[in-house]
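During the no-cost extension, the postdoctoral fellow (Dr. R.K.) reprocessed legacy sequence entries with the updated structure-token encoder. One reprocessed record is reproduced below for audit purposes.
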Amino acid sequence: MKKILKSFYIAIKPSLIAILFGLFVGLIIMLAFNPMEAFPALLTLLLGGFNGGSQGIGNTLYMAAPIILSGLAVAFAFKTGLFNIGASGQMMVGAYVAVHIGVLWNVPGILHWIVALTLGGAAGLIWGLIPGLLKAFRNVNEVISSIMMNYIASFLLIMLINQNVIQELRAEARIVQRTAVLPSLQFLFPGSTINIGIILAVLIVILVHILIHKTTLGFQLRASGFSMDGSKYAGMNTKRNIVIAMALSGLFAGLGGAIMFLSFGKALPADGVIFSEGFDGISVALLGLGEPIGALFAGLFLSNIRMGGYYLQSFVFVPQIVDMIVAIIIYMTAISIAVQALFKRYGDQIKAWRENRKKKGDEA
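Re-encoded structure tokens follow.
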């Protein structure tokens, strides 16, 4: 047990160091602007949704679900050696298809939200499949193709909503029918907006963890990420692995977008602004060290401090300080991982050099 805990601590140490450093820098900034309120504000930030009791916790969990799935999408691609920066676009098309079905389709009872959620995820899968195919068969860099797909998704939504393609999705009619709304969990957190989205997100994370670490397909995907040439030499179909990885990554992001808007009173924006939750997914994946379970906890953490940023309005500080802290945490996570990798690779040489230097010092 002690060995397991030690291994777990070593694995999460880069993230812990990054979080502590980010919070420390945030505290310094707040002290510089208002020393009297800096410490209470930092405590409010850390408590996040807990500041609002059961309602605040429920709202935090509601906000966490799409962020977790976005982070999972990016982390899954990381595991296979790919960088899916197009999670925002995949979330947008997933959200649009889900809302389209939720507004226009007449599906009986519980099947309505299930169909909307499923086809929203399928739309994200298709949107992720495109850069996957381009990467596999034309060696197009997935960073470039996936980020361009974000803009295509943005302009596509503007066209579909604002121009007379789908009249019924204009203005007030963009709110989905009650049968398409995800079942609520307000009985657990009264007054909040929470629904079963968070439960679905946790279940998907567990399934993806099993897929990656316990199945043959997962082994092949990880092998391709570790060494594309090595996995190809071992007889693996690397092109297929790339396509599957990007398609599944898009599926998770599409589900995140669908969950975000299959909620009562939530309207799909018509201005085509790219969803920020997709870029939050990059932060979550890095902070979670590219692991599905890590993405779950990182998504909860990010959602919590963003909710804490909302409660910061009771002080003199603006909520944007959360973005500064998150940015510092991400930079520090990358640096911590890099330093840890260097010590892992050159640790023996560094240790031998230090012992040799100490020996020379004793002889002198």
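The mean pLDDT is 86. The radius of gyration is 23 Å. The remaining legacy entries will be reprocessed before the final report is submitted.
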